[in-house]
Give the backbone structure.
Amino acid sequence: MQQEEEERLGIQHNVLNKAFDGRLVFPPLTRMKKVLDCGYGTASWAAEVADQFPDSEVIGVDISPHMRPDETPENFWPQLDDLNQPFTFRPNTFDLIHSQLVAGGINKTRWPTYLRDMVRLVLLNDGPSGVLVLIRVLLTCISSQGIVANGYRFRVLKPGGWLQMVELYYNCQSDNGSITEGHALRQWSAKYLQSLDDVKDLRAPMRLQPMMSAAGLVNLEHRVISLPLCGWSNNPRDREIGELNRENIRRLLSSLALYPFTQRQGMTIEAFQAMITQARAEAADPSLKAYFPLWVPAHSNFRPDSLTGTSYVCIGRKPGG
């Protein structure tokens, strides 16, 4: 089971790499001294960043370090840590903090403090506080001058450092409206969101924009984009992403849902397998045009016609530096 999940995460990493045109770091950084990867998993992102920036120190934290490969770059330093606990790093440490697909692991009550821990706010007593805010959503990078609300500034990042967040919202929709409540994919989504609702906030990706605003970023808007579950798109690039994503989705439908459906919702193994079999068939059916939607925070200058995919990537820069 562990090996299968490691393989799936590797496929998922390749899907995101394709969606992001191979770009791992979205901020305009040519040199980084220290990078923090929150929930590094199989260390795919962290290891590739460590390779691309050999002079940097990439620190990865995860509560389950057993998926880390045996061979990683010498400048990658994994640490055992729980993202649901406050960070213990010294202030002004990192040039970049990366947090990707952690909604299923962050406790429901932790989200506000998780974000504040990464962009720890300390009140400035006087003086202006300028910040360059850059929002990166998939292939579009927009920058604009902004300010930190109410004179706050970020603490955990170095002055001039960046926060990069990537999340998915697992609520299956259809590009042509053909998926109904009677489809297993829609039932899977509803059951998955409900099964963990008392402990996890799987809808947090939709609320990242107001949480970022509360953290001090301004001039933020949001858009809705989509990531195909199979190769149904007429756009060649999107179709290739969907074809690559097909195997990830086939495995994800089972791996994400097995525990919450059977242990928390009391579903029998037979009923679970029947739902997963049907959901997999629907996800692979191009005529249904299935995708996972996401409400995407974006800057007011954001151009929706330049977007493809559902992965939400948002980055903000700490003032100074």
